Amino acid sequence: MASSGGTKTKKTLTCRGAVCWGPQEPLTLEEIQVDPPRASEVRVRMLCASLCHTDVSRWRGLPFPLFPRILGHEGVGVVESVGEGVEELKEGDIVIPAVISECRECLYCTSDRTNMCLKFPVMLNGLMPDQTSRMSVKGQMLYHMFSCSTFCEFTVVNVNCVIKVDPRLPLQHASLLSCGFSTGFGMPWKEAKIEKGSTVAVFGLGGSA
Length: 209
Known about the structure:
The chain is of the alpha+beta class and about 210 residues long. The protein has helices at about 55-60, 170-175, 180-190, and strands at about 1-5, 5-10, 15-20, 30-35, 40-50, 70, 75-80, 95, 135, 140, 155-160, 160-165. The protein is globular and about 55 Å long.
């Protein structure tokens, strides 16, 4: 990041990323380019990342192949720079990326029945909401994973898909909150509404079971 006359100029960064070039191909550590954040986006320096079964599915090319790609959707990082219009976050904030965003205004966000935002749907096409990518490798565009792509040193995320967390939280624990814990704990707590004394059956013992 360069500065001129006291004003910071956000530039494209070169950093390391684990690139998946094709279905079930080994990830290779490459030098990638990560663009500066655009309006309503933040660029995050990843501090810790976790592996989820969904990452494995995307690595296999399911439900459809999008390569080359930076996988990963669980992690925690620190905001390196912010784009135009971002007021709720600042440089230095500790954040986790989230697969599901919310505008807090649409019919779904204001409902107690679902959190699948109508304005900011889950991104499945490997691109940002404006249908472009913020990452490239060797002159070739890289697909994102959801709105996250945590298997690299820097990533760009829409501010609606970022959650600020208490910096005192251990990083290895914070990394699991974006999917594994929120899915496993959120379903029985928010959806099934399990109460004390309930008898339940648990299928799967993984992080995102």
